[in-house]
Amino acid sequence: MINIDLLEKIIIIEDSSGRLKASQTSQLTFWGFRQSPKQNNYKLKSSVSQEEVNTIILKVIKYLDKEKIPFSLSVSCEKCVSQLYKEKDEINKIRKQAKDYKDGNYDNAEFNRFITFVSRHIPRTLKGHQVKATFHHYLIKNAANFSVPGSGKTAVILTLYEKLKLDDEVNMLFVVGPVACFRPWRTEFADTLGREPIYKILAGGEQDSRKSEYFCPSSKKSELYLTTYQTLVNDQNEVSRFFQQKGIKAFLVIDEAHYIKQIGGIWASAILHLSKFAKYRCILTGTPMPRSYTDIFNLFDFLWPHNSPFSSENKIRIKNSEEKGELAYVKKVLEETTGPYFYRVRKSELGLIPPVFHPPYVITMNKYEKIVYEAIVKKIGLYSEQDYLKNIELLLKLRRGRIIRLRQGVSYVKLLSTAVDNYNEDLIENESNLSKIIYNYDNLELPAKLEYLNKLVAGLQQKNLKVVIWAHFIKTLELIVDYLKKEGFYCKLIYGKTPIEYESLEEEESREKIRNEFIDPQSGLNILVANPGACGESVSLHKTCFHAIYYDLSYNCAQYLQSLDRIHRVGGSEINRANYHFLQYKDTIDQDIKANLDKKAQRMYEVIEEDYNIYSLDMFEEDYASEAYKRLFSQ
What we know:
The chain has four domains: 2-84, no CATH class; 107-349, Rossmann fold; 356-360 and 446-633, P-loop containing nucleotide triphosphate hydrolases (Rossmann fold); 364-444, no CATH class. It contains 24 helices and 19 strands. A seven-stranded parallel β-sheet has the order 8-9-7-10-11-6-12, with helices on both faces. Strands 13, 14, 15, 16, 17, 18 and 19 form a seven-stranded parallel β-sheet that branches. A five-stranded mixed β-sheet has the order 3-4-2-1-5. Strand 8 (199-201), helix 8 (207-212) and strand 9 (224-227) form a beta-alpha-beta unit.
């Protein structure tokens, strides 16, 4: 008889009669067991986690049953195994219920009761897809929402929170995300639930003062807590103790959850640690697998910290199959593993009016900017003839720098006097006339794009229409604002670094005031000038702004798509058509950037209409330079 004992995290297998064969002891060794000095004892190394212990003990029992080897369990071991089987039965029940619902097989009476709850307790009128998503999340409690940006995910989770709160399952909402999401959560809370939230922002500020907020009595707690990923890393011990306080039933939401995709990353580790102490959990992201199928592992390990759908074997199988290019098999495994646990609304299901992409306004450069641009193109062409002599690392840096110089040339000539990171090539060396033009450009002429922009903005202002103007370089943004103000227009500027979560709370609050003024139909502020890095994620302009002008573009398709979604979203775009306008200089890099973005955006939309696709389309880092350079300067 084999005896199995469990002492804390140590599994002990005693083979007093020596029944185990060599092949069977090899299997135990593979799982991490080590033979003790007594030849018939095997111990699992103590360095493994509790989750791994739980997994291995079930594997051992299943294996012994399969091998038809009699065994007995100690009292502590039997208690643990009984609890594990109970949890396994519960998760299987939830999984089946969620799968049946997504397949269209569900209890109509229960669904109708949920509809009644929504109509009675949620002041906001939800879209059909939002109600369906909320009911799915209610069935499983720990759910992922992978719906496309602009679909109304925040309203879904707030409705779910209200239902769980009325059921006495939770009593506080704790949201982790970039600073830019704080305002949408507060405003959506009021719009969806019909009451202003009592909230606390736990990000930035004086550390001791912030951390003291976690130790307030449960009777004085807020209903909505908002914090950032980097703050959570610093406060994770305090937050975990906060969640374990008597009377606290935390519903933990991770917004823009693609930021925790990195296996072993400090943000991900903090989130995974905290997940064990929340009553329920939810993740929100429109891009669950931005670069690889393995990006999804952390998301579901967070949702189900004690019963993750991904076993270690599954993770290895998915990683290896992806590396081999066996993507159909990977998608099959993912559907079987995670399919029931997430809900996803596609862009085509939102019922939005299709936007209008106006043909680009092709503009002829003014005299001096044309002289500079053509000289830069010529110099790059001459330099490229010797590129074969350079090593690949240097060549990539040069190509990236030259592409940036071309983009600067079609944005604002003065930018050519500024430094570019990791790029020291002087394209105006020995060209004193060019240097004089660049440094004195503001005294020579206005950019032709700026003059054309003035006409477009004036036409929209005559119709009292709001417009957001997108540009990428800070000096260009400042040029646009200064010029429009001189022309008598009231406008304001938002810019910043990307990703937004690195920004301070104070900077975001300043931007928030400007956004609030801009979206207010009575404010008089009808022109917002911004760059996608600071205003492209977690920001909604669509209820009062229906026009966007792109002064210049980058090859970064992710930022481009995010900027498009700012004025094309649920809650306004069902009745108001979004309009996109593009300024381009004739016969320049502008045409290549726009064509490249259109191509990648079309591929992206095709991808996001399907489940289980990765998003590695040059959208999350600027690795576009070589391909763009080859198109423009092919030998």
